[in-house]
Amino acid sequence: MFxxxxxxxxxxxxxxxxLVFLLGGWLAESLxxxxxxxxxxxxxxxxxxxxxxxASGEPAEEIDFDALLAEADPAKGESVFRKCQACHKLDGTxxxxxxxxxVVDRAKAYVDxxxxxxxxxxxSEESWTPENLSHFIENPRGYAPGTKMSFAGIKKPxxxxxxxxxxxxxxx
Length: 172
What we know:
This is Cytochrome c family protein. By secondary structure, the protein is mainly α. Helix content is 44%, strand content 0%.
C-alpha cells in the first residue's frame, strides 16, 4: 500500500511546495523591498496634510467665547446634545455620566453619589463657567487629565457654544 515510490513522491511534493513558497517570498520581498536594513529611516513617498504643522506653529487664534455664547442657538445645541445623551441625562438622574441639568455655573463634581475621577474631584471648589465648560467639552482629557470621560470632544467652538446655551436652559 505505502511503498518506497509513493513515499518518495509525497516527500518530493512537500519539498517542491516548500521551494515554491520560499521562492515566492523571495520574489515578493525583492519586488516590494524599499532598501536598507531594519531600523533605517526611509523618505516618505507621500504625505497627508493633517494641519499639524499649522497647529504647532503659531498659537491658535483666541476666540471670544462670550461673543459666541451671546450668538448661540439653544435649538442647535439641543441637536448637539444628542452626542452626549448616551452617557448624560437631563432629568436629574445619572447615567454613565452625571446628570447635566443645571450644570452651567454649578460646582464641579457636585452630584452626590456619583463617582467622579480624582481629576475632577481636585477641581470641586471651582464651578462650571461657560468658558471652562467649553474647554472641557473641547478636549476632556486635555482639560482634566485622568478624567473617566472617554468622549473625544467637540472641536467646533460654535457647536460648543450652542450646546452650552442649550444646557443653560435646562435649569437645576
